[in-house]
Task: inverse folding
């Protein structure tokens, strides 16, 4: 890589080594949705709820790193104008449904409670106030509640976790029963999940490539073929026979 340029720097700075998020997808106008993690440590995770922090958010940025105009928090005091949605833990998966234009996100829960969310502008997705998981120690996260007024519920969640990585919609008719389905790469789960979605609800789940012992990091669909890359550097091609 040559002539790289920093166009955006998330704040607040933190020296931890976990939960960066950092998935990027482009909208129909060529602007970017960017996910950021809340960096895991207890002293900083609450910043996922703070609108003056970039952490634990979905950001909407131009390719110059500026806030896309007219965002949900534009002009609001003590809020960063690039924030599109907030209250997220470690959003590793981000994809736009090509049929509807909706933005979907998948994130790591703590011990339990991995989530699939339909992202809407200005909405609060609850972390670390509400969660379907618990601390790795076995203790409750915060007050140990799963719902609170003003905070969104996940469309779907996993318990035990799968550690969702990349997500991708299948937008081809080559495998007709897959069209419109969402595929999720499982890291700790070591498989790929196919989710059947109807009217923004998950109505079916199938697990593919179980038993391979792979952490499926990245997924993409191209011309009716689903491609997957693993942490071991292996490349899978899933196509109609």
Result:
């Amino acid at each position: 890589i040559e002539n790289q340029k920093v166009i955006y720097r998330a704040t607040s700075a933190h020296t931890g080594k976990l939960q960066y998020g950092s998935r990027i997808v482009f909208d129909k106008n060529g602007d970017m949705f960017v996910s950021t993690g809340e960096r895991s440590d207890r002293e900083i995770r609450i910043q996922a709820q703070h609108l003056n922090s970039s952490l634990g958010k979905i950001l909407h940025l131009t390719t110059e790193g500026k806030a896309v105009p007219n965002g949900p928090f534009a002009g609001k005091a003590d809020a960063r104008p690039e924030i599109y949605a907030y209250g997220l833990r470690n959003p590793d998966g981000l994809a736009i449904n090509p049929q509807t234009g909706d933005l979907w996100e998948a994130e790591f829960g703590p011990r339990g409670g991995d989530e699939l969310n339909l992202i809407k502008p200005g909405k609060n997705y609850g972390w670390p106030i509400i969660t379907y998981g618990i601390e790795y120690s076995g203790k409750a996260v915060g007050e140990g509640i799963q719902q609170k007024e003003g905070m969104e519920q996940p469309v779907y969640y996993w318990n035990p976790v799968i550690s969702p990585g990349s997500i991708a919609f299948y937008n081809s008719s080559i495998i007709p029963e897959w069209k419109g389905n969402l595929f999720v790469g499982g890291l700790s789960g070591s498989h790929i999940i196919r989710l059947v979605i109807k009217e923004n609800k998950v109505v079916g789940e199938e697990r593919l490539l179980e038993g391979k012992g792979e952490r499926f990091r990245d997924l993409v669909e191209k011309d009716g073929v689903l491609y997957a890359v693993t942490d071991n550097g292996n490349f899978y091609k899933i196509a109609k026979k």
Remarks:
- The CA atoms of residues 43 and 143 lie 16 Å apart.
- DSSP finds one helix and 15 strands in the chain.
- Helices lie at 42-45.
